[in-house]
Every structure is written in structure tokens, then in C-alpha cells.
């Protein structure tokens, strides 16, 4: 019954659901989800920004490469000599480096690199003012075109077959986005003029841009993205807290209702246990009643038959009970019955079965006792009875007669009624002669 009661209490307990500690789980899950979304969007924005630079750098390098290819088709290219077009040291030893027209205009011969740089500068003036482009080579003719560390590594990778290089270079002074594409010998006239073979690496076109310029471009998007995610996170978190608070109130109400149900269940279980105990207990003496005796005796008989063990049945009847009731009243008779019950309790063990099965009739069952224990049992019973009579002053002496039999399941199987009948017969025999055998 106690286990059933515990299980019933567990099944209706919901107090744990009302704990605020559980709120951390959905809020933490939402925080992780919002953070993951923000980080993913920032990562996507970064990749898109880098891809945009790479696309622009490819376009600018393509323009410069087209210019180089155009100049390669013309072995000598002259442009007017101005402050924007300086004399190149590369052509210092050529007698035809400078020419003068009949109109007095001065022209100077320019290299492919200078022309590509001039075209790139024009492109920068039309919107790409943060980019820097130049031609470089592992063996530059002009010291200005000497590659830096990253460009040198990129040129070496081009020798191994790579088609382009891109990197974010972190520098102590300033971070740069860099892109580089190879420049290879393709035109017949370029091969003839400079002695390169088809596919030889001439150098590379390097495009760079300060990373801060790109950051300035995307900073408003970053701020907007962070503000949007923060606003959504706060809005959803507040909504979740409101809903969780509402659910907690409902859970607490349900828990209060369940606590009342649990108390009712406890009371019902206690009442049920009390009723069951009352159904098998004699109200006056506190011993088992006839019904309780038969229930317990049946169990002992079954165990004895199964295990082939032997037990004692004792039938006891109070002597002169009618005379006590008639002379001294029923209250005195009840006191005699109560005294008899106390004497039996002191005589027998807690594991033994003691019961009041009638008005002045009592019965007891003693298990796990030897065959020679009958006299000892009756001796203890008489001894406790004598002690009681010696300790009280009554106008009468309490006396009772007993009959005892030894039950052997293997020799003579018998029912409870049969055993009681035999013990009852012995009791009346002893009552008539007032001796115990």
C-alpha cells in the first residue's frame, strides 16, 4: 500500500516544471541560435566583401592585361612627353627613345608596364580610387617593379601552374587585400622582341587595396545586422519569458491542486488501511478477531503444508465468564477479557498469531516450535496468569482453560476448522478436570 501511495504521488507531481531554473534552457537555446545566425550572417558578409574585391581586382587586372597585349602588338609605342609621362630609365640607351615631330612636339617611348599603369590609374579615377595595381617580376628590369614577399611567393606558385592568388595580408601598419594574376608570353611579336617562349612567365599583375576601405563600406551593414539580431533576440526573449511566466503560474496552480489530491490520497490510504486493520482486529482487546485469525491461520497452514513444518494450535476459554458478568457487571467482564489478552501477549511472540475468536474464546498459533514445546507453552501461560492474579486485588481469580495440539502436515493434513475443533475438544476436557495435558 505504501509503495502504491508513493507511485501515485510521483505520477501527479509537477512541481519541478514550475522551477525558474528550467527557464535557462529555452533562453540559452535561443541565445545560441541567435548568436549562430549573427555569426553566419557576418561570415557571409565577409565572404561577399572578399568576393567583391576579388571580382573588381580581376576586372582591373584584366584591363591592364588587355593594355599590355595591345602594346605588345606594337613593338614601339610613343606618347607625348608630359609631367604625367616621365622618361623611363629602361629606354635610356636607345637613340630613338625621344622623337620630335615637324611641328615640334616631343614624344617618348614607353614600356608595357607604364602604359598598363596609366590605364589602371584612369580606371581608379573612375571609381576604384582605393586600389593599387602594378606589374612585377622575379627578374624585374626596373627596380620599382621588385616584388615584395607575398608577390614573390605568388610568382613562384604561378611557375607551378596556379592561375591566381588572393589573400588578406595583416601588417603592423595596415592590413591589405591582395590579388595577383600571372602574365605569360602569348603573342608572337612579344616572343620575337624579348626572346620568350610561348607560355613563359613574364611576371604578374598585382592589385592591392587597404582592408580598412572595405570595412568602411560594410560597417553600416554590420551595425544594421547586429542591431537587427539584437532587437529580434530581445523581442523573442521577452516573449519567451512572458509565456514561461504564464506557464509557471499554471504549473503552480496545477501543483497546488495536485498537492491537495495527494493529501486526499494519503487520507484515503490511511483510512483504507485503518478500515482493513479494524476489519481483522478485535476492538476490545486489540488482538486479531475471528476473521483476522482465519486469514493469518490459512497462510500459516499453506506454508506448513508446502514446507512440511510443524505448528502448535492453542484454544483458550476464560473460566466463569458468565458468573463474572452477572455478579460484577459487563465492565468487569470486559476487563477480564482485556487482562487475558495482555497475558497472551506476554506469553507468545510477535511472530505468533493471537486472536479473540469469540466472546470469551481465544486462539493462538505458534510456528517454528519443536514437538516438546507444548508443555513449555502452557507452562508460560499458567505462570503469567499466576503473576497477574498475584499482582491485583479482585473478588475473584482470573482463570482460563486451554487445549493445545501439534499439527504435522506430512502425517495428518487438516483444515483450520478441524484443528480448532480438536483444540476445542482438548480445552473442554481440560476445563472439566482443570488439568493441562
How does the SSE layout of this entry go?
Elements: H1 2-11, H2 24-72, E1 78-80, E2 98-100, E3 106-109, H3 112-125, E4 132-136, H4 149-159, E5 165-169, E6 176-184, H5 188-194, E7 201-210, H6 211-279, H7 290-307, E8 311-318, H8 321-328, H9 330-347, E9 353-356, E10 361-367, H10 374-391, E11 400-407, H11 416-433
Antiparallel strand pairs: 1-3, 2-3, 4-7, 5-6, 6-7, 8-10, 8-11, 9-10
Helix pairs in contact: 1-6, 2-3, 2-6, 8-9, 9-10
Helix fraction by DSSP (H/I, runs of at least 4)? 40-55%
Averaged pLDDT: 79
Percentage beta strand? 15-25%
Q: Could you give the count of β-strands?
A: 11
Number of domains as seen in the coordinates? 2
End-to-end gap: 44 Å
Give the biggest beta sheet: 4 strands, antiparallel
**Uncertain runs with pLDDT below 50, 5 residues or more?**
8-16, 187-193
What order do the SSEs take from the amino end to the carboxyl end, as H and E? HHEEEHEHEEHEHHEHHEEHEH
Summing up helix and strand content along with how strands pair, one would put the structural category as: alpha+beta
Strand order of the biggest β-sheet:
4-7-6-5
Specify the number of helices. Answer: 11
**Radius of gyration over all CA atoms, rounded:** 57 Å
